[in-house]
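Checked the freezer inventory, then went back to the computational side. Two predictions to log before the end of the day. The first one is the construct we discussed on Monday; recording sequence and tokens without edits.
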Amino acid sequence: MEFGERLKELRTGLNISQKELSEKTGLTLRTIQRIENNEVKPSLYSVKAISDALELASSDLLNTSDTKPYEFNVNLKITDMNQFLNDLKALVKTHWKTIFIIILVIYLFTSYTDIKSGIMDAWSGK
């Protein structure tokens, strides 16, 4: 049994239509249809969205009777990566003070005992 057949079996067993699954996952209806017809292999994002919508573990959804392991479609587009980097740059540029304070607070919490002992040594003149 291939992934699409497994998905259709689980979806119909839960009395969920393709349209309802599309709405729950945020994937298009056509994408759901193409996955169920084994026209495409879903991305990791799609598998996660579908398993969340069906309230199943991803491993339950991927558990098929095939002896070969499931292959994921992991296509990364350069334009998507560039957009991510630009968004990250914009985030840092606009919120750099907040990010700096958070890093400083984390550093202070993780180094508290060293800082305390240093202050105590300096106070006592050691």
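The second is the one RB wanted added to the comparison set:
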Amino acid sequence: MTADQKNKQNTDAVHIELTDELRAIRRELHRHPERSFKEFNTSKYLRSILEAHGITILPDPMETGLVAQIEGAHDGPQIGLRADIDGLPIHEDSGLPFPSENEGVMHGCGHDLHMTSLLGAAFWLADHRDRIHGTIRLIFQPAEELGRGARAVIDAGLIDGLDAMIGTHNNPDYKPGEVAVGFEPMMAGCVRFRVNLHAQGTHAGYPHRGTGPMGAMATMILALQTIVSRNVSPFHPLVVSVTEVHGGDVWNVVPAEAGFQGTARYFHREDGDLAAERFKQIVESTAAAYGIGVDYVWDDFQRPLVSDHDLARLAMKHVPSYAQLEPIHPSMAGEDFAEYETKTRLLFAFIGSNGQPGCADLHSPKFVGLDEEIPTAADFYANSALEVLDYLRQ
């Protein structure tokens, strides 16, 4: 690229300022987080802000969340920009001067930043419809933290007809002004599993008179660790974690019931399928060997998040005109934005939100996302929207 071409690219790029209005919006949202599928006041507040800027709200059947739309001055494809809106059941200990006022609920994943960034992009796009060749749908999605919000949006028909979806997530491992985007896996596929063991309880002094479940449960939990260590390539990340165990409540009684639950995370579909098969074999064969009954659930509810190859290359080309392009550091956390892949093409990016040594991670009571993340994320939304619309209409 010549110097003249680079200067033209920088001129053409959208640069959205961190205005006093956006700062105030971020603080209002941060002070009033709401749990998944209970974001009633959040939805009302977003509606009022969008309407004040002359942005059309679309009717939808969902109780929380909302969808708005910006019609461009020129005909073209339809795309969606998505931000998640729910908080977490966390007691905030961030030290921010505008902490949560809803006791026991916190925007500990930075969704207040996401909403504010999408609003910033929406304000700019609504004021520059002459640059839009197509239609942009703004999706403020509920219940990402439950992994069910994207599916609710899809089932409501709210992304029908969209040719692509664009999303972001703040990431405290990167500094403000940094954007990580590409076509390799970004966030993991997620599984919830649960096992319930059914045996014959007995007196602890006479274990031979029952078929207590404790030994079987211990064997299963240990054997599940071999799924990763003995079945999957060390070059393919896979996690199987037992996170909760229950059984018995009296010291001298062998219980009749016990169980455990946990999660698996993976980046490659074949690894998720292999883990499911080995999980089934271990649970069923161990229960049979101990002579007890078992029922289980392997809920592979969230696919890995991977951007569309062509859209990712497009983003990697335009990001340097307004931000520092960084390599992707994959996350074992899940993101239900991946669910939209069942209906359309995806583009997703990590936006730097802190980057200070030792800063708290997402979902921590001490998590601090900096205001300076907002303009970079807004720039990504707006620039990507224009670039993807132009790409899709060619």
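For RB: The CA atoms of residues 186 and 330 lie 5 Å apart. DSSP finds ten helices and 14 strands in the chain. Let me know if you want it refolded.
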